[in-house]
Amino acid sequence: MTEQRIEPMLAESARPGAAAIPAPIVVAKPRTRRPRRLGELLEREHILAAVLLAPTLTILTVFIAYPFVLGVWLAVSDKVVGRPGAFVGLRNFDVNIHDAIFLRAFQNTFVYTFIATTLKLALGMLAALLLNNHFRFKRIVRASMLLPWIVPTVLSTLAWQWMFDATFSVFNWVLMNVGIINKRILWLGDGVLAMGCLITVNVWRGMPFFAITLLAGLQTVNPDLHEAAQIDGANAWQRFWRVTLPLIKPIMLVVVLFSMIATFADFQLIYVLTRGGPYSSTHVFGTYAYEIAMRAAKLGQGASISLSLFPFLLMVIIFQLWYIRRSD
Amino acid sequence: MAVRYGSPLKRVMTFHVPLALLVVATLFPFYWMVITSIRPDTELYNVKMNPFFTLHPTVKHFEYLFDLTLFPRWAWNTLFIAAVSTGISLFCGLLAGYALARLQFRWAPPLGTMIFITYLVPPTLLFIPLGDVVKTFGLGDTPWALILTYPTFLIPFCTWLLMGYFKTIPREIEDCARIDGASRIRAMVSITFPLAVPGILSAGIFAFTLSWNEFLYALVFLSSPQQKTIPIGVFTELVRGDVFYWGPLMAGALLGSIPVALVYSMFVEHYVTALTGAVKG
User: Fold this and answer.
1) pLDDT of A209-266, one tens digit each?
2) What is the ipTM of this complex?
3) What is the CATH superfamily name and number for domain A100-326?
4) Hey, are the CB atoms on A145 and B32 less than 8 Å from each other?
5) Residues of A in contact with B27 (CB under 8 A)
6) For residues A196 and B62, what is the distance between their CA atoms, to the nearest angstrom?
7) Could you tell me if residue B40 is inside a domain?
8) Quick one: B52 and B77 in the same domain?
9) Number of domains in chain B
């Protein structure tokens, strides 16, 4: 759109070279290209950031933040499938504290998490140290070591369930034929033994995660440090404890915290292997919440069990954030 | 690299033996899956026979799987859901990662932390109310229930990974493009994103394997057999009451694991980068 401007007679602001014409001139104003509104807006960082983050924030708000609030409301209500719930304050939590199965699940969840994480850390460290050498089939070994982590948990857990089967367990077959036992062990039939089996499968599945990330950490350690320590007379154990360990502590901590959160909130493994049995002795928070909410249809009660996860997770996350901020 | 000294015997004892034990322990359950899926029923349920091999391999279990269950349908469902949720998560993660890594705006640090905080609410905590939300949207028993909820745990991961990746791309490249007249968006899409392709690949593969692996949401939101994914289908439909059909079960477990294992094996380095990148980042 051209704009016109009427030049006054004495055009002091006339462009250089123009003659002063004693008559009004119609001059076309130079047209600067206006960027489209939207494009202009998106040049500004605030707007662009908002637009770019919008999809993510929408999904996270609708499917995490809102359900979380809803979950808290459910936990303080007496909602049962089929009829609306009413506010009952902390009654669900009171019921939980007096529920023997809940207390057992509480204990199981912590025992499961701490023992499994410790074992995963130890074995993962061992595996990482072994893999930190050059040997002929290194690439294949390293790749196949991650398989337990890659393969869907349910499917590999089913294989373990078959391996622990009361009648046909391969472990029993081997032990009996070697002569160590003469009666079949009911691997998943006894509360404590079943917990042991659960921890074993969890360690089998989770150890590769530790191994691969710790290996990455080990590879950042300068080998000159080891040589220097060796020259000073340190043996292998001392070298590990005094040189390697302090240097990979940061990555160890991150891995441990991540893994603890996932193990604490575990559901798949226990549900597939024992469904919380025998006689509800291997329940953890996740499986017990499922049982109460889905099987017994007590949504409010189930939500209160789920929510019991939250304090611990909160502590872990706060610790993790503090640790990251501290080393920034 | 660890420095190794000592006699060959010591080396065998402290290195080769532990390594061999580790590999055997790691891979044995998979061997078990394979061998069970090809042993005939008569041998499977015979306590006397040596379970480690069979002289009469059979494909009957696989036939059972394909003829008498909806396994092919489950496989399709799982693939579809994993692919679309990975796509959505990569899209969101790319944009969010770019915004958090490159743009300066007041809410950047708290938002970065908030995305991290989503790990405070794992599926085990959310599944009960989320079931309600899914039903409200009318998505119950459809793949969309999963396609829209899987990104809740895939997006944070993709965002971190890509954020870290973007931070390694020098700003100057984009600035040059902008001096040449490109708009911010143009520079982002045509310059920065192509440079981040390895990171996108890593994040995508990791996200794909994570979705294939998911169980709880699929268990809670899906009910009819045609809608199930492989993990759920194999687990619920191959067990009638107390009777486990171990042959087809292991066949299903094997076939359900192969696609993910294949994708993984083609991109091992990318997967490892994703794993270690997430932990370090």
Assistant:
1) 999 989 988 888 888 888 888 888 888 788 888 888 888 888 888 889 889 999 999 9
2) 0.88
3) MetI-like (1.10.3720.10)
4) no
5) 144, 147
6) 32
7) yes
8) no
9) 2
